[in-house]
Amino acid sequence: MNDPRVRPATEADLATLVRLRDAAARWMLARGVTGQWRPGELDEDHFRQVMAQGEVWLAEAGGCVLGAWELWWEDEAAWGPQPPVAGYVHRLMVDRSTAPPGMGRLLLEAAERRVAEAGRFRVRLDCLAGNAQLNAYYRDAGYRVVGHKEGKPQPGGTPKSFTLMEKELSGPTAPGTAGRSG
Fold first, then answer.
1. CA–CA separation, 93 and 70 (whole Å)
2. Which of 57, 86, 117, 181 measures 20 to 30 Å from 171, CA to CA?
């Protein structure tokens, strides 16, 4: 498969984003990952609102959507008020029927590059505290646990507990970060 092309999602992609999110939720449930995502939980309005306040990105290759993610520029529900030093990755989704192995990591790296391009030097995310496999996945990608958030409100569901994770960007992918520290 060709290298993926990453682009901002548009209004025309809303149905694709809902399909991708629901497929990811079904994949998790089929593997016994409960309590995280449910099919039908988010609709086109959710992604439309994120596009109005942040960014939604798609990865494609050979005419196929491989995955997507949301990038927010603040996340007070999980992190409280923060200075504008980070981008917040949400809903990292891979289409298991089209994406080659390792696509999740490629999407995460693309999100990190976008955060650096915006002049920010940290990437933050939260993941369900009880999902040990997902927590390990992000630690393996260079994220460190920096806290926990109990009772974070969820779209269309009950509040949940999350692990807060952060990665400091440095080097050539993060312009202007030399000499900065956490």
1. 9
2. 57
Tokens of 1: 């498969």
DSSP-assigned beta bridge partners for residue 57: 8, 69
Task: Give strand pairing partners of 164.
Answer: 126, 147
For residue 19, what are its two tokens?
Answer: 């399909």
| Residue 2 neighbours by CB distance under 10 Å | 9
Task: Give the residue from 33, 34, 162 showing the smallest Cα distance to 90.
Answer: 162
Q: Give the strand pairing for 122-128 and 86-94.
A: parallel
pLDDT at 129 over 90: no
Q: How many C-beta neighbours within 10 Å does residue 173 have?
A: 13
Residue 36 confidence (pLDDT): 80
Q: What is the pTM (predicted TM-score) of this model?
A: 0.87
Number of helices and strands in the chain (H, E): 5, 7
CA 125 – CA 165 distance, rounded (Å):
5
- 77-115 burial code (b ≥16 CB/10 A, e <16): ebbeeeeeebbbbbbbbbbeebbeeebbebbbebbbebb
